[in-house]
């Protein structure tokens, strides 16, 4: 009778229809020493759970403290690099020779020619900008034709 019940419980177990109490009954049956010979093949399956509950982790986990030490040295090195960069920048900035000569030209004719060169360069760039504005005008006219106001 008990053998039939255990066989039915095993069938229900493999169909995932057992309750927790029925699974507990199966574990207790297969943990005992009087398992029927036709059911011995299932004993490792249910005995595994009992065996794993008894296992304990006994290995020691080494703590790596060297990483923490390297982080400290890395932050110190970074702060030294930043401090060195700031100090070099201020040294070069404040030790530049101060020049009040802003390109002053005493001869009026030379000054006139230099001014004409500068204005020609500016005019050339402004004309390029105005040329690209014609594309915007075409776009605006096309848009107005499509979307009539």
Tell me what the structure shows:
The chain has 149 residues and is an all-alpha fold. Among the domains are: 2-54, no CATH class; 107-149. Helices cover 70% and strands 0% of the residues. The protein has helices at residues 2-14, 20-31, 43-54, 66-94, 108-146. Helix 1 (2-14) packs across helix 2 (20-31) and helix 2 crosses helix 3 (43-54). The radius of gyration is 45 Å and the shape is elongated. 2% of the residues are buried. The model has no long low-confidence stretch (mean pLDDT 83).
Write the layout of secondary structure elements.
Layout (H helix, E strand, L loop, with lengths): L1 H13 L5 H12 L11 H12 L11 H29 L13 H39 L3
Helix pairs in contact: 1-2, 2-3
Q: Short description, anyone?
A:
The protein has 5 helices and no strands. It is mainly alpha-helical. The longest helix is centred in the last third of the chain and has 39 residues, at about 110-145.
What keyword list fits this structure?
mainly alpha, 5 helices, 149 residues, 0% strand, elongated
């Amino acid at each position: 009778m008990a053998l039939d019940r255990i066989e039915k419980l095993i069938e229900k177990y493999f169909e995932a229809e057992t309750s927790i109490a029925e699974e507990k009954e199966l574990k207790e049956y297969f943990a005992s020493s009087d398992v029927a010979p036709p059911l011995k093949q299932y004993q490792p399956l249910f005995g595994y759970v009992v065996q794993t509950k008894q296992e304990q982790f006994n290995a020691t986990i080494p703590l790596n403290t060297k990483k923490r030490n390297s982080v400290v040295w890395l932050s110190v090195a970074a702060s030294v690099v930043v401090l060195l960069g700031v100090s070099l920048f201020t040294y070069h900035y404040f030790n530049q020779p101060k020049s009040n000569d802003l390109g002053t030209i005493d001869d009026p004719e030379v000054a006139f020619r230099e001014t004409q060169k500068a204005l020609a360069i500016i005019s050339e760039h402004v004309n390029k900008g105005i040329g690209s504005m014609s594309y915007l005008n075409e776009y605006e006219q096309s848009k107005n034709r499509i979307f009539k106001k």
